[in-house]
Write a structure and sequence with these properties.
The chain contains 20 helices and 18 strands. The chain is of the alpha+beta class. It has three domains: 186 residues, Cytochrome Bc1 Complex, Chain A, domain 1 (2-Layer Sandwich), CATH 3.30.830.10; 183 residues, Cytochrome Bc1 Complex, Chain A, domain 1 (2-Layer Sandwich), CATH 3.30.830.10; 35 residues. Bound molecules: zinc ion.
């Protein structure tokens, strides 16, 4: 359905969570839903679950309950809030080790029919029939989520039934794999002599992503900065690798990753927790506990900075054909499970790049060396270790070194001079104000905001305690006025630094050129398979 990339995920996730646009005032005046769960205490048993924690989240008018499913170890977070727009999501840690797009193709394929709903595409049939305010499925770098929101209790139950069956008992038919993943098909189905081409929903989606030079740039920068494990590959799928995925590998990936022991359930709203647990417990009855999928290790730190050159097709619409380079410097920040440190890092990212008075805007964008920030500029916390990147788009080749030099000098200047107090105070004030004005579909936004930290075994409830985080930050800043400067030095004067340069040049191998060469090589592959087969037969015949 949707592939989450840095382009369309909140660039400063925590800050964005705290600064939702005030589209709808959703302050809750009743506390019935919260009062119901306030009676629970750690150790209580509830429909096959054990209550671990019950905690108030005053900033968001939530009472949070953490539970574990006794039989499978599945985790459950319930955010009780007197909001009628209830949300459900189930999220799996999915850590691919190749770029075949297996988590993305699986996310599409499980929605094509399940044991209880063997009809074609039950998910899409529900889209038109349900009263849901939101339905989707999302593939991120290291998790896959199935969320929905609904204001109607019966509809919520029906959707939960469809989602649970899709996730835990999908049919994953070969035909669905060919439709959603990839297949070879004649360009004209009525003409057997027409050329053969690659088709498939995910294949085409990713072809679109990879033909966009800015998406390609962000993807390659991520792969190169965190090369040693799952972030070194393309979770959504690189079209040149998608075509080597088999149906069997897809089924294996499901068996390994879509298991309750590797699942995190989230429910939000005013509907009773007990009925959610009762339903999920019944659905998980046939499973027993297994080892959850592999934890993502920390990236080994480099001894010296690295450089990466990326090629892409030239932009025919570029205002100045001489300015066809994108350059950025990328840094690894804190582990996102360290909620407070991650907050400081996100504040740094914001203060460094946001607004016309920020140091990088003044030094880089106003230098006139490029047209705008590079597409990866900003703070990103969708990987186990957060990233800060800054750079420029549409730069002349001769100016590339100058851009890198300005970035280095700006970092030194910030370490020396710090940030203006008024900017820091304005940001903290903005965060405070936004807590009183939360936008629509709050439950889904909360699910997305907590997903990455929780996925790496961080504490999702701590992530919601905005007031506590802000108080601590203000205190620490009072104690040590150079705190932010020291953090800039700590994170941006390191050796694990990637200088990423993208050239746009005419010789770039486009996907259609690749497709042509691949079809030929596949033909050769088929020929060699025939050869192997015939020699095998020959061998049998002789013996
Ligand atoms: Zn998709």
């Amino acid at each position: 359905m949707q592939i989450l990339r840095r382009a369309n995920v909140a660039s400063t996730k925590l800050l964005k969570a705290l600064t939702w646009s005030p589209s709808r005032l959703t302050r809750c005046f009743t506390e019935e839903a919260r009062d119901r769960v306030r009676a629970l205490k750690p150790g209580d048993k509830l429909h096959g679950y054990t209550v671990r924690r019950v905690e108030e989240v005053p900033d968001f008018f939530i009472t949070a309950v953490m539970l574990t499913h006794d039989k499978t170890g599945a985790e459950h977070l319930h955010a009780a809030r007197d909001d009628e727009n209830n949300t459900f999501s189930v999220t799996f840690r999915t850590t691919p080790m190749d770029s075949t797009g297996v988590p993305h193709i699986l996310e599409h394929t499980v929605l094509c029919g399940s044991e209880k709903f063997p009809v074609r595409d039950p998910f899409f049939k529900m889209l038109s029939r349900s009263m849901a305010t939101f339905m989707n499925a999302l593939t991120a770098y290291d998790w896959t989520m199935y969320p929905f929101s609904s204001q109607n209790e019966q509809d919520f139950k029906n959707l939960m039934s469809v989602y649970m069956d899709a996730a835990f008992r999908p049919l994953i038919r070969e035909l669905d794999f060919c439709q959603e993943g990839w297949r070879l098909e004649q360009t004209d189905l009525t003409d057997p002599s027409s050329p053969i081409t690659f088709k498939g929903v995910v294949y085409n989606e990713m072809k679109g992503v990879f033909s966009n030079s800015q998406s390609l740039y962000m993807q390659e920068a991520l792969n190169e900065l965190l090369p040693s494990h799952t972030y070194g590959v393309v979770s959504g799928g690189d079209p040149t690798h998608i075509t080597s995925l088999t149906h069997e590998q897809l089924r294996d990936f499901h068996a390994k990753h879509y298991h309750p022991s590797n699942a995190r359930f989230f429910t939000y709203g005013h509907l009773p927790l007990e009925s959610h647990l009762e339903f999920i417990n019944d659905s998980l009855n046939s499973f027993s506990e297994i080892e959850p999928s592999v934890r993502v290790p920390l990236e080994p730190r480099w001894k010296k900075p690295r450089s990466k050159h990326i090629s892409c097709a030239p932009d025919p619409m570029a205002a100045d054909p001489e300015k066809q380079h994108t350059v950025s410097v990328n840094f690894l920040m804190s582990e996102i499970t360290d909620v407070y440190e991650n907050f400081i890092a996100s504040v740094l990212g914001y203060l460094l790049t946001n607004g016309e008075t920020s140091p990088f805007y003044q030094a880089l964008v106003e230098s006139g060396l490029g047209s705008d920030y590079s597409p990866n500029t900003g703070f990103h916390s969708e990987t186990k270790e957060a990233i800060f990147a800054v750079g420029l788009l549409n730069v002349r080749e001769a100016d590339v070194e100058q851009v890198v030099k300005i970035i280095d000098e700006t970092v030194d200047k910030v370490i020396e001079e710090g940030f203006e107090k008024t900017r820091i105070n304005a940001l903290l004030h903005q965060i405070e104000l936004s807590q009183r004005h939360q936008g629509g579909n709050f439950g889904f936004h909360l699910a997305i905001t907590l997903a990455s930290t929780w996925n790496h075994e961080g504490d999702p409830i701590q992530s919601m305690q905005v007031g506590t985080i802000l108080d601590k930050f203000r205190d620490d800043l009072k104690q040590n006025p150079r705190l932010l400067q020291e953090k800039v030095k700590h994170y941006l004067k390191v050796r694990h630094e990637l200088r990423c340069l993208q050239h746009q040049h005419i010789e770039f191998l486009t996907l259609s050129m690749y497709e042509g060469s691949f079809i030929m090589s596949r033909k050769m592959l088929v020929k060699s398979a025939f050869f192997m087969l015939s020699t095998k037969f020959l061998h049998v015949f002789i013996s």
